[in-house]
Amino acid sequence: MQSLKGKTALVTGSTSGIGLGIAKALAAQGAQIVLNGFGDVQAAQSEIAALGVTAAYHGADMRRPGEISDMMNFAADRFGRVDILVNNAGIQHVARIEAFATERWDDVLAVNLSSAFHTSRLALPGMYANNWGRIINIASTHGLVGSVEKSAYVASKHGIIGLTKVTALETATTGVTCNAICPGWVLTPLVQKQVDARALAMGLTNEEAKKSLVGEKSPSQQFTTPEQLGALAVFLCSDAAINVRGAAWNMDGGWVAQ
Predict the structure, then answer these.
(1) Does a structural domain hold residue 206?
(2) Coil, helix or strand at residue 204
């Protein structure tokens, strides 16, 4: 059975990587999908359409509230409302605090945190009217722990967990839930580049480089996959998860258990 048939899911940052994996998992359960991002749009739409659902696209820049508003209006006009909102869009910049460019700080906070506030505030009225909705914020293990040279990313991911908790409390007596997923290492194309660089620098095979990279943080020495994260998102949309509210659910191979 397709448990989400008749629902509409908007997933930000969904033209590749984690976002696309989550969009495909929701589509496999029958949800219509609104994609967003700067990756290969045609390829992403084709992958979603192959699952038998409609895949619309809006290219809003998550740094810009006006474009976010346009995207939410587009989704409502196309499908009636957004039933499932997955705030996945994210960027990273690495530097020590004293050398961190202020404009990069502003961009990271805008994309990783403020955009989720704007999408949520615009999606909630329709969810309340239908007494059903799911907001899933893709945070990170860096929403639970820190790492050097990642001040903006860590601050934004801690912030999105705080936003998740407040949203969950404000929706607690309704059919709307809000939770955060906190991935550890995920083998996205960006991370694969780090693996390739490590293999070259250290004279390792690709598999050895993967274990070396992941093993620094994750006791399991295994990457989490976009498909596994998608399966968790599907669960959070299910009736079984109706009383999962305000959770920061880490899927990280034991990273934050240490």
Answers:
(1) yes
(2) coil
Query: 191 and 104, same structural domain?
Result: no
Task: Judge if 141 and 213 occupy the same domain.
Answer: no
Quote the CA–CA distance of 31 and 18 in Å, as a whole number: 17
Which among 55, 54, 166 has a CA at the least distance from the CA of 116?
A: 166
End-to-end Cα, the chain, rounded Å: 39
Query: Tens of pLDDT along 85-96?
Result: 999 999 999 999
Whether the predicted pLDDT of 169 surpasses 80: yes
Q: What is the pLDDT of residue 189?
A: 78
Number of domains making up the chain: 2
Which phi-psi region, left, alpha or beta, contains residue 253 (left: φ > 0; alpha: ψ -120 to 50)?
A: left
Q: Annotated catalytic sites, by residue?
A: 153
122, 89: one domain: yes
Integer angstrom CA distances of residue 110 from 41, 49, 65, 174: 22, 30, 9, 28
Domain co-membership, 172 together with 192: no
Q: The domain containing residue 209 runs over which residues?
A: 187-223
pTM (2 decimals)?
A: 0.96
47 with 124: CB under 8 angstroms?
no
How far are the Cα atoms of 54, 181, 241, 248 from residue 228, in angstroms, in the given order? Answer: 23, 11, 17, 16
The mean predicted confidence, pLDDT, of the chain is 96
